[in-house]
Write a structure and sequence with these properties.
2 strands; single chain; two-stranded antiparallel ribbon; 2 domains
Length: about 180
Amino acid sequence: MGKPPHHRVTEWIAGKAALLLDPAEREVVCDLAESGASDARVLVEILGLVARRQAACWSEWRPWGTLFLVVLPLGLILSLMSRLWADGTSVTAWMYAGHWDESFLHDPGLRADIVRVTAVTIRLYFLLVFFAWTTGFAIGSWSRRTAWVNVAVFPYWSLQEPPTAPPCCETTHGFFPRLLPLW
């Protein structure tokens, strides 16, 4: 008979937590697991070692620099770029897909516009993927041992709603704010 489900879950969590350690440390931790210690004890020891190693890594300037100079600003920029491009391309895609007619292909002007819009859309989304990949590469290069924290913060930060305009401003047409009376 196998182990009870909670032991299997504990072993799985301990195995995943051990992946955050260096290979040499991981071998020592696996030896602890094989020595007959309880699953809960092994999990506590692994998580404690991971926490101590991460605390030591965050005592240097590189992880903090990566967090504040790469993850937060580039996450916000990537969020705004993706939202802007999605808004722009979705209107055109809806215009053609929602009102599609075979006669669009017979008109040379519409045919050229469809090709242009498709090329621009593919280019924009390729640039978005490239920018996201480059940012991830920079995060991994500049703070290898703490990259998992930064990689977890990056999507969270980049998917946040951008800050709203101040109460004295109201967006009327695109990016051009109109000042409201302050009285």
